[in-house]
Amino acid sequence: MDDRTPTAPAAAKPEIDTAQAPLAPRADGRRNLVGLARPEIAAALAELGEKPFRAGQLWRWIYVRGATEFGGMSDISKGLRARLEERFYVYRPAISRHQASIDGTQKWLLRMEDGAEIECVHIPEKERGTLCVSSQVGCTLTCRFCHTGTQRLVRNLEAHEIVAQLLSARDAFGEWPPPERGRKLTNVVMMGMGEPLFNYENVARALSIAMDQDGFALSRRRITLSTSGVVPMIRRCGEELGVSLAISLHAVTDELRSRIVPINKKWPIAELLDACRSYPGASNARRITFEYVMLKGVNDSLADARGLVQLLAGIHAKVNLIPFNPWPGSEFECSSWDQIERFSDVLAEAGFTTPVRRPRGRDILAACGQLKSDTERQRRAAPAPG
Ligand code: SAH
Ligand code: SF4
To answer: Ligand 1, closest atom to CA 325?
Structure first.
């Protein structure tokens, strides 16, 4: 049997500590409705003797109108509102910190019920606004250039904690119900903290809720899931969710990739690319994005660029060159702009679309994992109370 189970961490980091998962109901015994599928809400209401259509009403209040209180649900009788209030609540995380960059990027540090903190970033662009969503607290993997990989505390996020990032962003933008035109939240990328395919069940549940057309109504075409290469889960992700796929490739030889993206030791490049070739739904119109972080003198030579062209032959691919975002103590430097351009030219000549991801929100440390660590540093520096 293949021992490479998708939940096994690839590097020597603590296993996910499920004991920390906030599964317990609130101290007052009320149950959270966020994260339940519509039939589960219907079942919870049936226990109160309510008809299934009530679930649809609640669903729309929560996911179209953004309601967090039952009191304002005007099409539900006062008596039922009071009973709902007694038994349920609509979850939102606390906002520990909010930062806005001069370029319009915003970043929220969200505190979960067990005190764990995660980050969520919004990047506004001309025609769209992308929310970068976290799937785990920290990450069990240890990609050498990634700050999230250095965080000690690691656990999976529950589905409601993933959905809540989307809800909190709509709260912040006042997009309840979302306007027809000019919305701030149009796209979602699972590119925040964590490896989404190590937390597949919760990610899938959360995205299914977000994609419900009678609710939050995000189209699957506007959702991208980024993975470092959890090969056995890639097909399932395509078949069940049908979202766009991004692959954190970052190197063109197994030798280098195993060094900087250690999961490669388990699932090397050839296996990863095979999974991409057969990704359900990939086509010229829906290409797979290959992320490639530009590390000076490490993976940025023109020979690397040519190697990339060869590797991606026959795959509906686009390449996203990401300028490395340094963090205190990181061992790498970002490639020069000239080099990034030369690298990108090689890809363009071979016919690949190659957007260079412009650095956004650098003044608020908007790269993976940086806000949280920054806050931890500030807290440590603060004098002890008393
Ligand atoms: N764990 C998933 C998704 C989160 S990381 C994955 O690895 O794909 C999202 C993207 O940010 C990945 O492509 C990752 O390699 C990249 N990244 C991480 N740290 C970075 C840094 N310091 N500078 C630039 N990109 C970084
Ligand atoms: Fe985890 Fe992705 Fe960071 Fe690698 S790049 S440590 S998989 S969050």
So the answer is: 23
Give catalytic status of residue 146 as yes or no.
no
Q: Can you tell me the distance from the alpha carbon of 2 to that of 14, in angstroms, rounded to the nearest whole number? A: 22
Helices (H), the chain: 38-46, 53-63, 78-87, 159-173, 200-211, 231-236, 254-260, 269-277, 302-311, 337-349, 370-381
Model confidence over 5-23: pLDDT tens digits? 344 344 444 444 333 333 4
Whole-structure pTM over 0.85, yes or no? yes
82 DSSP 8-state letter: H
Q: Whose CA is nearest to atom 14 of ligand 1?
A: 248
**pLDDT tens-digit readout, 128-148:** 999 999 999 999 999 999 988
- DSSP letters along 287-307, please? PEEEEEEEBTTTT-SHHHHHH
119 is catalytic: yes
Can you list the domains of the chain with their CATH numbers? 10-17+92-381 (3.20.20.70), 35-89 (1.10.150.530)
